[in-house]
Structure formats: structure tokens, C-alpha cells
């Protein structure tokens, strides 16, 4: 997170739960089957359990997942699961309290470790851990983080650093995924590929990650390397920001202002048709390696990374 903090949005500028559900109903009618609540931190949104329940009640929506920093998860997990939550991704870049404070600027490492302990024993939902390896920050912990999947039925995913927000402005250097794989092979031996349903408690669609399982591992290790090995040709995702902007590509500023439609009196039919037409404009691929005019200038926490 940036040292100066983040600019908060006015309450009237963000979508209400009713507006979010209406957007998702339109998307579900067009074939969307999975919804992930991310951020920022989704669990700070009041009554988030109500939103999870509402999403699960939409015809066509098969799974609802949350990506969280884990700070508030411990006290909310049972209610979220009871509302129908299918999966949790815990963002965890370090197992060191000092590094945690440096990265997050919050002294909340203990709360996250408590959430990790609960998730490690969880059998009702699919559990994944997301780690972004950064050179000279947490790259020395790659084997230790991966080892969580050795002892528990979770997926530890290493995600390539993308040049968005402070990752670009602060000059951080990501660790190439081929180097991450090499370090893991050195620590654990051969990285044996596994199928989509073989890395969690339930068969939730896995997205862009490629999974492996070293010998003796209970869970699995995943790799998401959008920079080194573009997977744009198979991308089937769109993002809906808190303000209601339907974002078609993480890199691009292209998209649709659904808030204007929702608050302008658009019918459900017009909303669905406009969303359909927008998705046809989804960029063919990202260009993170180039600073082009079409690049979105917002930070990752603003666009639902």
C-alpha cells in the first residue's frame, strides 16, 4: 500500500448491494458462472455476508469466492460459509512479522496468522494463498511459503509482480516465475503437474494458474505469470469496480460505466445488451511492457486485482 494512504470514495459514489446484484444478474444471463469479491479489502464492506448470500441466490452463479488480507476473516468465516461462500484466497506475501508491517503498513500479522491457521484446517471451502515474490523483499521465503501446501490441503500460488500502482512507481522487481520454479525444485524435487480439481477441497474453477505438486505434498503449488507467459488468449474475466465500472482488462482503461446505466433508468434488457456489446470490445491482449495511452493509471487496489 502507498505510504500516503489511499483516497476514500464517497458512499454515494460506490454501488449499493442492490446495484451490484443487478449487474451480476445481467452478467449471469450472459454466461458468467463465478463471482469473486476482491479489492482493496472486501471484508471491510458492511454486511458483506448479505452480499455473498444474494450472489449465491442469482440463477446461474455457481461459485462465490473472496480474496482477502485475512485480518477480519477469523470472526466472519463461519457466517460467510453459511451464506454460501465457496472459496477463500488469502493474500500472504511473508511469514515474517517485520516484513508484514513493512509491506502492509499495519501491525496485524497476528490476526492474519490466526486466519491462516483456521483456513489450513478448513474443509468446507476451497482455500488458496496468494503470494507475489519481490526481489530483496520476500524472495528468500519462497520455499517456506510453498511448504504450507506440503502439510495442508491448500494451494499456494505465486503470482508474477505486475507493473501497476506502487509496483511501478516504487521500482519493485518481481522474481521471474522460472526462477521461482527453480528454487522450489531445489527445495522439494520434481514439480509434478496436477489437474484442475486436484488442489483444493472442492472443484472450483481455477482460472489462469498452472498447478504442480511435489512428492509428499498434501496441497499444491500454483504459478500465475501474466508477464512472462501471456494467457490473454484464454482470459475469460471482467472486473466490476466499486464505482460500477465494468473493466475489460486489468491493463486497459477500456470498459463500461454501469453505474450511469443503473442510475439512469436503464431496463434489465438494455443493461444486458450494453454489457454484451462492451465485452465484445475486450482487448486482445495486455501491454504491461509498454507505457501506452490505453494503460489504466489506477492502482491495483482500485480495480479489483
Automatic annotation (TrEMBL):
InterPro entries: Aldolase_TIM, MoaA, MoaA_twitch, MoCo_biosynth_MoaA/MoaC, rSAM, rSAM_sf. Pfam families: Mob_synth_C (PF06463), Radical_SAM (PF04055). PROSITE patterns: RADICAL_SAM. The keyword GTP-binding applies. CDD domains: Radical_SAM, Twitch_MoaA. It comes from the Bacteria. Keywords: GTP-binding, Iron, Iron-sulfur, Metal-binding, Molybdenum cofactor biosynthesis, Nucleotide-binding, S-adenosyl-L-methionine. The keyword Metal-binding applies. GO terms for biological process: Mo-molybdopterin cofactor biosynthetic process. Residues 1-202 form the Radical SAM core domain. GO terms for molecular function: 4 iron, 4 sulfur cluster binding; cyclic pyranopterin monophosphate synthase activity; GTP 3',8'-cyclase activity; GTP binding; metal ion binding. NCBIfam families: moaA. This is Molybdenum cofactor biosynthesis protein A. The lineage of its organism: Bacteria, Bacillati, Bacillota, Negativicutes, Selenomonadales. The gene is moaA.
Amino acid at each position: 500500500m502507498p505510504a500516503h494512504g489511499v483516497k476514500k470514495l464517497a458512499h454515494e459514489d460506490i454501488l449499493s448491494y442492490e446495484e451490484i446484484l443487478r449487474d451480476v444478474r445481467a452478467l449471469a444471463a450472459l454466461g458468467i458462472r463465478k463471482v469473486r469479491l476482491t479489492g482493496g479489502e472486501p471484508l471491510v464492506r458492511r454486511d458483506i455476508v448479505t452480499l455473498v448470500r444474494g450472489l449465491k441466490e442469482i440463477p446461474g452463479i455457481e461459485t462465490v469466492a473472496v480474496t482477502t488480507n485475512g485480518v477480519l476473516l477469523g470472526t466472519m468465516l463461519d457466517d460467510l460459509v453459511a451464506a454460501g461462500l465457496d472459496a477463500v484466497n488469502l493474500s500472504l506475501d511473508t511469514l515474517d512479522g517485520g516484513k508484514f508491517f513493512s509491506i502492509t503498513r499495519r501491525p496485524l500479522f497476528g490476526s492474519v496468522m490466526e486466519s491462516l491457521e483456521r483456513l489450513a484446517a478448513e474443509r468446507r471451502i476451497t482455500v488458496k494463498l496468494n503470494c507475489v515474490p519481490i526481489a530483496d523483499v520476500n524472495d528468500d521465503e519462497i520455499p517456506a511459503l510453498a511448504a504450507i501446501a506440503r502439510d495442508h490441503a491448500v494451494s499456494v500460488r505465486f503470482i508474477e509482480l505486475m507493473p501497476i500502482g506502487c509496483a511501478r512507481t516504487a521500482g519493485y522487481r518481481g522474481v521471474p516465475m522460472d526462477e521461482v520454479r527453480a528454487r522450489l525444485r531445489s527445495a522439494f524435487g520434481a514439480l509434478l503437474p496436477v489437474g484442475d480439481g486436484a488442489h483444493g477441497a472442492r472443484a472450483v474453477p481455477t482460472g489462469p494458474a498452472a498447478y504442480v505438486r511435489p512428492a509428499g505434498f498434501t496441497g499444491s503449488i500454483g504459478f500465475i505469470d501474466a508477464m512472462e507467459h501471456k494467457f490473454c488468449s484464454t482470459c475469460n474475466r471482467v472486473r466490476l469496480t466499486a464505482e460500477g465500472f465494468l473493466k475489460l482488462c486489468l491493463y486497459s482503461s477500456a470498459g463500461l460505466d454501469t453505474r450511469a446505466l443503473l442510475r439512469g433508468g436503464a431496463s434489465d434488457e438494455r443493461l444486458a445488451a450494453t454489457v454484451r456489446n462492451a465485452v465484445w470490445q475486450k482487448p486482445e491482449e495486455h501491454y504491461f511492457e509498454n507505457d501506452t495511452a490505453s494503460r489504466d493509471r489506477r492502482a491495483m487496489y482500485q480495480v479489483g486485482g
